[in-house]
Design goal:
The protein is an alpha/beta fold. The chain is 50% helix and 17% strand. The structure holds 2'-deoxycytidine-5'-monophosphate. The site of 2'-deoxycytidine-5'-monophosphate (DC) has 14 residues, from helix 2, helix 5 and helix 9.
Length: 226
């Protein structure tokens, strides 16, 4: 049976998560937030006090962590070895650590099958950096979602301030730029659009407008979906 997959790749803060969850809900498909797998591993690495350049130990740990994803409405709860780590998942430290360990090919190889296993009927929306290029290269629908670094930093700043977390726009912008550079320039599975991806720049668009563009892509394919 052919299980349809929609991949949504792009840099952090482009709106992939919100768009992916909304589309998955509209279509009744499963949702893979692949960044949260790298983030959960980052949390495990920090908890164990491993050095970030100890590739062998991090790879070994990647093979042993138990992850559980519980999706309810718009909330994603992630359990690491039975412990709810959702609150730590979104911090800048977790994201930056995830970006560093995600550059190791050995680590990516171990996590590949965990991601492929999310493909289940009736369909999957997969969000990340290499969903359309490496994890699901045969996906029927591929989107690459970007926005300028300034726009993404402003969104992140607003999110943090709204949560009552102290934030500095200049620092967030430079961290976002550094993370983009690392994700784009790594040798294995770098962040780049798949050749057959529809590229959407979300700067200046509302989330609803981006969702409408992605839904158009699916409808235009003539697939018997919805
Ligand atoms: O999407 P995110 O911000 O939650 O991802 C955190 C980091 O994980 C990101 O900077 C790079 C890494 N990542 C990756 O290398 N490949 C993916 N498919 C998803 C995330």
């Amino acid at each position: 049976m052919n299980i349809p997959v929609l991949t949504i790749d792009g840099p952090s803060g482009a709106g992939k998560g919100t768009v992916s969850r909304a589309i998955a809900r509209k279509l009744g498909w499963h949702y893979l937030d692949s960044g949260s797998i790298y983030r959960a591993l980052a949390i495990a690495v920090l908890k164990q006090g491993l050095k970030l350049d100890d590739i062998a130990a991090i790879t070994e740990l990647a093979g042993h962590i138990q992850l559980q994803f519980i999706c309810e409405d718009d909330d994603l709860q992630v359990n690491l070895n039975g412990e709810d780590i959702s609150a730590q998942l979104g911090t800048e430290t977790t994201g930056n650590t995830a970006s560093i360990i995600a550059a190791y090919p050995e680590v990516r190889a171990v996590l590949l099958q965990k991601q492929k296993d999310f493909k289940r009927a009736p369909g999957l929306v997969a969000d990340g950096r290499d969903m359309g290029t490496v994890v699901f290269p045969d996906a029927e629908f591929k989107v690459f979602l970007t926005a300028s670094a300034e726009e993404r930093a402003k969104r992140r700043y607003k999110q943090l301030i709204e949560k009552g977390i102290d934030a500095n726009l200049c620092q967030i912008t430079s961290e976002i730029e550094a993370r983009d550079r690392r994700d784009r320039e790594r040798a294995t599975a770098p962040l780049r659009p798949a050749e057959d991806a529809l590229c959407i720049d979300s700067s200046g668009l509302t989330i609803e407008q981006v969702i409408a563009k992605v839904m158009d892509l699916i409808r235009q394919s003539g697939s018997a979906i919805e």
